[in-house]
Amino acid sequence: MAAAQQPPSPESAGPAETGRTITTDIPARLDRLPWSRWHWTIVIGLGTVWILDGLEVTVVGNIAGRLAEPGSGLSITSGQITGMAAALYVAGACSGALFWGRLTDRFGRKKLFMITLAVYLAATALTAVSWEAWWFFLFRFLTGFGIGGEYAAINSAIDELIPAHYRGRVDLIINGSFWLGAVGGSLLSIVALNTSLLPKDVGWRLTFALGAVLALVILLVRRHVPESPRWLLIHGRDREAEEIVRGIERRVRDEKDVALPEPRGELEIRQRESVTFMEIARTVFGRYRRRAVLGFSLFIGQAFLYNAITFGFGAILTKFFGVPADRTGYYFAVIAVGNFCGPLLLGKLFDTVGRRVMISSTYLLSGLLLFGTAWLFDRGVLGAGTLTACWCAVLFFASAGASSAYLTVSEIFPMETRAMSIAFFYALGTAAGGISGPLLFADLTGTGKVGDTVLAFSIGAALMCAAGLVAAFLAVRAERRSLEDVARPLTAVAARARAATEGAPGTQGPSVPPAPSTP
């Protein structure tokens, strides 16, 4: 059934006419679609940017030593790169998430995921031509500013376009693809550090230039990704939403050569142009306050764990095991593969076994394994290879858990606040772990004392376990459920369920229950 209203009809309405009440089955139509080539287009167009983020972050960490050497073209120290530059990148990402997140909810997903990628592209290209430390710092901040906006815009769009049956695994794999970029960054840094191939002042510049070129390719692909029909519905553009969904259905029918199942459920909403900050605050911290505690816990836990392990990995390998600085990239490539395998192999279980079991277990397992790694490290029984193997085991589970944090805050809050919610929890959690973390763990891992490094591991492990316990009690069972079912839209005035009595649990359309005050 096409979107309907009282009156006028959607076909006669203007492109952005708000204040009308409409009844629509568009969310249910999107959720009942089988997986198709069109969905792969969304994954490639939107998800591949995390590969760039992984490439960017890893390259900077691995080439810090070379940048600090005389003849690199920059007057900068290794500590400034791993401390100041890293903190500025994260600060840019946090502020960018908040700035762009608000605009994403206000002006739409597509406009913002095009703009934020363009900001990232420009800042990365300008980093490549740095000639002074202040220029390098400035454009590290602006690169983070662009990538922070990507987190809000991309996760919102993906969750609103991917069918409910696949949403968990797709979101996890896309967020986990950061580590594919990390593998590439590690191997690329090995080439960049090889002075027999590239001069000291050229190799590191080419790595940033390559990131800008890849971003340009993604920008061209992304032009074909449509605006979220869910966002269009709420903002008075139901005619555009209907045209997009009809086009998607036509492509899927042609590819599968089968009739699509009937959508199950309708939603009645009163369209509006925007939602105020006060409404967002009341929704997140009033109506869904327990979900807010969950979001904070997941983001802070994973941010500290990752900083405890990955921030000083090069210094640990060099100081304790004598690994040459230009060889640490190989070790990081190995743990990056372990990181990607976690979401890839465990992602489906988040849609089948369920969110609560999988989120809590991945957080707890990674924390306990890191405690075990800290104990073995303290006893002096680990070498460079065995420590890397321990990290792989820890991060196999931690990566799935960390990716589920983004999935969680994207799907447990109402449609109108989705991008801002992602931005808010990302910014606060990452600021706690991603700004204070590097400053704390730089001191601990940089002393060369075993006890200080053990303490760094233990802090990350304890916070990860604490987040896992919070998830065990507060995680929302959102698997295979429509987004409108998980969190009632603020604009919803009624719900008319045509839910069938047949089919798998959780596959019904967006019948919207009364707004809950708890998960």
Detailed description of the structure:
This protein has 21 helices and four strands. The protein is mostly helical. It has a single domain, classed as Growth Hormone, Chain: A, CATH 1.20.1250.20. A four-stranded antiparallel sheet has the order 1-2-3-4. It is globular. The chain starts with a strand and ends in a 23-residue tail after the last strand.
Q: CATH fold name, please?
A: Growth Hormone, Chain: A
Low-pLDDT windows of residues? 1-14, 494-519
How does CATH name the architecture? Up-down Bundle
Q: Tell me, what's the shape?
A: globular
- The CATH superfamily title: MFS general substrate transporter like domains
Instruction: Profile the largest sheet.
Output: 4 strands, antiparallel
What is the strand arrangement across the widest sheet?
1-2-3-4
Termini, distance in Å?
A: 31 Å
What's the helix count? 21
- Sheet-strand content, in percent, reads under 5%
Topology (SSEs and partners):
Layout: E1 4-5, E2 21-24, H1 26-31, H2 37-47, H3 49-62, H4 64-67, H5 78-107, H6 109-127, H7 133-161, H8 167-176, H9 178-192, H10 200-222, H11 229-234, H12 238-256, E3 266-270, H13 277-287, H14 289-311, H15 313-321, H16 328-352, H17 355-379, H18 384-411, H19 418-446, H20 450-474, H21 483-486, E4 492-496
Antiparallel strand pairs: 1-2, 2-3, 3-4
Helix pairs in contact: 2-7, 2-10, 3-9, 3-10, 5-6, 5-7, 5-19, 6-7, 6-10, 7-19, 8-16, 8-18, 9-10, 9-16, 13-14, 14-18, 14-19, 14-20, 16-18, 17-18, 17-20, 18-19, 19-20
